[in-house]
Amino acid sequence: MHVGSFFPHFHDEAKAFEFLESVVWADGVVCPHCGVVGGRVYDLSGVRSKPSAKNPKGVVRHGLKKCGECRKQFTVKVGTVFEHARMPLHKMLQAVHLMISSKKGISAHQLARTLEVQYKTAWFLAHRIREAMRSGDLATPFGGNGGAVEVDETYFGQRKGVNKARGGHAHKFGVLALVDRETGTMRSFTFDKYRAEQVHPIVRANIAREARLMTDEARMYAKIGKEFAEHGTTLHGARQYVDYSDRTIHTNTVEGAFSIFKRGMKGVYQHCGEQHLHRYLAEFEFRYNTRAANGFDDRARAREGLKGIAGKRITYRPTGEQA
């Protein structure tokens, strides 16, 4: 089974390199070794790898270039999450499309069957793509023009080494999410304990003081709510999900984002190690922020996701963990 045969970069290796170059080097070729932008670069077309028993004539090295300044060779994959990947680039681009276009994600087993690769290869590739989706930029605070920002937390999974208690959430992973209603974008964070010293700094750093803060009735937000222009609450314990005196006061948007996240984690991925949780959050956050309501289709989402591959690396260890 192959994906999107109508896109040549999904089944032709040379076209795959051309497509990735158009995304990563949209402003000119950048040498990953010396950092020169738009300098003298030579195409080394037709160069082959060293002969081997499996390939006596060697393999054509697509997209190979040479910098005229530092005289070193490179391809567009160098310095990205795809560097040193041993599978064809066109298959990795298929994986990007599958992960970005699947609303609740795609399991590594399904990815392996579709791409016709081993499970470990698909698992590691999926984490490479999640790392590309993860934004490391200093983001502008939500609600800067006085808009409504919803904040809520959720719990799921089982912490390693923590026994399940009769009540409470100490044995589960904690996730805090913020949604800016005006821009339709979300940010998600993990926390160890639902305490003010962990939650309040996240809220202060990501929400402008002129914003309208929307939460449930949790006492955690009572104090920090006074720091914003308005603090609207709904009484979920009393089954109140919208304040009928002011229907803009609710947290239904962020809870809708949580529902997609939980359905994906429970129904598709089923298990997540705590050390990988931040990348799974980045995956769902990216898809939420690039959904159709925000003006993206699957092709635009794929290009947006590929913009984040540069300057990131994940190394694989024999235990299956990532450095």
Explain briefly what this protein structure is.
The protein is built from nine helices and eight strands. By secondary structure, it is an alpha/beta fold.
What features would you describe in this structure?
- The structure is a single chain.
- The protein has 323 residues and is of the alpha/beta class.
- It is elongated, with a radius of gyration of 23 Å.
- 30% of the residues are buried.
- The protein is 32% helix and 13% strand.
- It folds into 2 domains: 126 residues, no CATH class; 142 residues, Ribonuclease H-like superfamily/Ribonuclease H (Nucleotidyltransferase, domain 5, 2-Layer Sandwich), CATH 3.30.420.
User: From the helix content, strand content and strand pairing, which structural class follows?
Assistant: alpha/beta
Shape: elongated
Name of the CATH homologous superfamily of the largest domain? Ribonuclease H-like superfamily/Ribonuclease H
Write the H/E string, N to C: HEEEHHHEEEHEHEHHH
Biggest sheet features: 5 strands, mixed
- Total discrete domains: 2
* Structure summary, number of beta strands: 8
CATH topology of the largest domain: Nucleotidyltransferase, domain 5
Report strand order across the widest sheet: 6-5-4-7-8
What is the CATH class of the largest domain?
Answer: Alpha Beta
Give structural attributes:
323 residues, alpha/beta, Nucleotidyltransferase, domain 5, 5-stranded mixed sheet, 3-stranded antiparallel sheet, 9 helices, 32% helix, elongated, disordered C terminus
